[in-house]
Structures are given as structure tokens and as C-alpha cells.
């Protein structure tokens, strides 16, 4: 039986209220400061490195995102690490704080469906992150113009915009996860700890565990090892396992989009690259095609986690 | 559908809430077990009972906030399980220990709720100003709710119901934790709502307060309605008689004359000039007339109104409860 009325009634009101809460909160200020300061440090190093050799690199602006100068990792790597932190910081108490403040039953007694509350809160969180990332993106472009003095080409802007969109979806994955945990756990502290635990596991431990598991599945062949090469089976398994981490998907998509010379993200046979002009950049469309499966993976992950939270929330008792 | 037709004609025509065999089960335990009641338009109806007796669950089912396991409840002719928006547009709910967003002001909190109600901006600010005046929170309208006392929060919750212009106000434990002064003020506000024709459904432990404002009460016990009716009716059921009148008067044969008044059960002689009678109605006027007719000197005439507290204590002592669940 169809329910009466729209499930989206009230989404706007929830969205506006949550967005203003997010933007004016001290928590958001701290997260933004953290990201801006670290990203600026990475950017400063990148600019310093790039000024040494402003040769005929056609994608000078994109280098800003990807060049890393020890001891700092590249701008993109820092974002890959910090975006989850920001999303978790915004999402870990979305629903359970309403329970604990005892506002949930009062809000749900207004003529809206639960969908509106959940969707409004989620979209507000995503919008907050999108606004911050867009501001950061503009900062990078602006600093690039000032310090490098080279106007960006259309393709560079397109590629960096693709970076922005994929980064927002990447944030969506972590925001969905944090929201799911805020529905499952009644205590915000537990939800935050579990979310941070998952984040640390996937970004720090998983890249170390994946090769170990792959070696257990396909033991390295000594003949390849004698030649100083990776065993193909082990390498394929390692990559497959690593791709279970959204962090890895984000990294691969960024590599394809921001480094135009990237032709493949996995191991290839020599005959597959016969005739390729190594080192020549791919057109934008082709790079996007390489990054497409990773992007779809991020979007699918977002949707699955959101739906899991949605189903749980619909079935949850509202009484405190 | 024919069945629905049948029950809607069977219930009283002016009933705004009608529950038929309303049941809520968690697993195998029934928290609310096939209860039936009708609430008439404009009355103040009290839900009484120990914690975990199913009062809040009943309220949540009426609002469509929790699923109904069996049976049916109609609120203003709508089915809350199927048409929750229609119900929630017309029913105001003040939850037990209501919460507000502490970092927002009173006006901002109400404005958020009013937006969710779908009110336009001009209408919103007009209604909010009027509601805050009525609950006497105008002075603190722009203060953060974090600074509010329990009583102020409850009044703010009532202001939300006023902003909604609800036809039915459902108040869950509205006076628990309030100081006596705040309680009296709150009960006055409930009476004002009733005077405007709002139907009020009230759940409480505070028996004397319930008695002061409720027209009828339902006594909940382990998911069932044990008794329902006005306080006087219940006292006849439980205590045997409704009114205890004490008479202090001189005169001959007063005890006999008092016993002859219709409705008087028995007359006890406490002293030469003091008598206590139990009756099923307020017989003070008749008693005065009887004393005067006997040429007696009436010195004192007092009535002990039936107290809900006595009824409640008597009932729950007489029938020890079988496993009262704790409220979640």
C-alpha cells in the first residue's frame, strides 16, 4: 500500500537547519582548520618544488595536487586521509544525538516522515563537506595562479573539477558509514570510536594486510622473485583486496584523473601496451574512463551504506 | 471495509480517538493488550498507571510513531498507520521529558517545528509570538533553551502545540519533575486548552493533578485498561461509595433522618453530635435540609471528595500486579 503524501516533505527545513548548525559549529571550525593548515603546508612544499623546474609541463596546475616533497605527502594524499575524518566528525552523532537530546519524538510528531529527517541531515552533511572542498579547490587554483603565474588550461580545470566531484563522493562513503553507526549505537562516543577504528583499519592496516593475505592465497613464485619481479597472481590479488578500501579507490581514481599519463591502474602484459606512446598524456575522456570503475565503486558504497542506515532507522523505536 | 463501517457507527459519534482491540507486541510479550476506549471531543482524558503499563506505547501508536501489532485506532477519523501525516498535522504531542535544541533560542526552536508543519514565514512568526505570550515565555523568547528550567521547557513544548493549532493535545507526563508552582501554572494552561475546545490526552503518575483536570481517566495495568470512567464512577467501583460526608449537629434523631436521605449507604455515629455518612453522590444539601427539618443546630458539614490516590492505592493493593515491566 502506498503511503499518503510525499516522503520529502520537510527535507528542506531539516537541510537548512542542519546546514546552519554544521557551519556555525566549533567542531566544523576545528576540522576546517586542520584540513586547511595541513593542505596548505603540502601545497607550499609542492609550489616550492615546482618553481625549481617550470619547464614545458603542460599540466603544471595538476602537479600542485600530486607532487609530494618529503617529509610531507602530496595534497591529494592528505585529502584522502583527512576527508574521512571530516565526514566522521560531521556524521557520528547525526541520529543518536537526537535521541539523547530527546528531540527525536518531538520532531517526528510533526507532519513529516522519518525519511525527511534522515535525508535532510545527510544532504546537509554532504553539502557542508562539498562547500569546504570547493573552497579548498578554489584556494589551490588561486595559489597556483599567484605563485606559478601560469594560467590553467581548460583541460586542467576539467580534471581538477573531476577531482572535486570524486572527492565529494568519497566523503559521501564515510558520511554514510558514520550515519549508519550513529543509528546503530545509542552513544555518540561509541559510534565515533567505531567509525574511527574502521577508518584507521582501512587506511593504515588494510594496505599492509592485503599483500599478506594475497601472499597466503597465491604464494610468490621464486622464479619471479629471482628476477626482482612481483608474481602476477599475487600482485593481482593484492590489488583486488586493496580495492575493498574506499581509500584505495579514491587514490586510484585520483591517479587516473590528475596524472594524465596514467594508462592503467592494474598490472598489464607487455603486448597490451604495444604501440602506446609512453609518457604521452591521455585525453580527458580516456582518463575519466580509467577512473570510472573506482568512482562507481565509491558511489555504490555510499548508496549501500545509506540504505542500510535508512532501513535500520525506519524500524527503530523512537522512544528514548 | 464493511467491518470498519460497523465499528465507526458503533463508537460514539463525537469520539475523536477510538481504539479497538489495540495491541502492541514485542516478541511474545504484549505491552499493550487489546485495549478499547473512546475519547470524546473536548474532554480531558487521563491515562494512569505504573511505569511500563503501556501508556507511552499507546500514545506512540496513536501518532503512528510505532507499529500497531493488531487492532485499530482512529484519530479524528484517520488511521495513524496509513495516514500519519494527516494525523500529525492535527495532533500535538508533548513527549515525556521533552527536549529542545539547546544552542537555539526558544523562537528558533519553535520556528524549526513550525517550518516542519509547513507554515509560511509570516504565519509562523505571528503564531509563535502569540503562543509564547500565552505560555508566558515572551521575556525569554530570544534566550537559548540551554538556560531554561524544566517548567519552562514544558511550557515551550505546549507552545509548540499551540502554534500547531492542534485539535488534540497529547501530553506524556507533563508535570513530572515540576515544582508545585510550575505544576499549577501548567494545569491552568491545560484548562485553557480545554476551554478552547481542544481535546487533551494526559498521562501521569501525579494522581491529584490528574484528578484536578481530567474529566475521565483510564487506569492502565500491565497493558490492559483495568478501569475507565470519571473519578466518581471509579470510586464507586473500587471503594464502594463515592462520598464521605461528616455532619456535626445537635438535635434529636438526626442519625435516623440522615439515614433516610436517598443515596446514603450508612451512617456512623462518631460522637453524640458527630455523624459520618457514606453516599454515592454529594448529599451535603440534603443533609443540611435534614438537620434543619429536625430543628437541629448545624455546626459543620464537610465532604471528603473521593481521591484518585485512594482509588489507585486501593486498587493496586487489592490486586497485586503480576510482573510490572520497567519503562524503557
Question: How would you summarize what this structure contains?
Answer:
Chain A is built from 13 helices and no strands.
Structural class category of chain A: mainly alpha
The averaged pLDDT of chain A comes out at 88
Question: What is the chain-wise order of helices and strands of chain B?
Answer: HEEEHEHEHHHEHEHEEHEHEEHEH
CATH superfamily of the largest domain in chain B: P-loop containing nucleotide triphosphate hydrolases
Radius of gyration of chain B: 23 Å
Total beta strands of chain B? 13
Structural category of chain B is alpha/beta
Could you say how many structural domains of chain A there are in total?
1
Number of strands of chain A: 0
Radius of gyration of chain A: 22 Å
The level of helicity of chain A is over 70%
State the CATH class of the largest domain in chain B.
Alpha Beta
Give the assembly state of these chains. Answer: heterodimer
Can you give the mean pLDDT of chain B? Answer: 85
Give the percentage of residues in beta strands of chain A: under 5%
Low-confidence spans of chain A: pLDDT under 50, at least 5 residues?
Answer: none
Low-confidence stretches of chain B: 1-12, 322-328
Q: Describe the largest sheet of chain A.
A: none
Shape of chain A: globular
Distance between the termini of chain B: 36 Å
Task: Throw out a few tags for this protein.
heterodimer, A: 320 residues, mainly alpha, 13 helices, B: 328 residues, alpha/beta, Rossmann fold, Alpha-Beta Plaits, 2 domains, four-stranded antiparallel beta sheet, globular, disordered N terminus, disordered C terminus, nucleotide-binding (chain B)
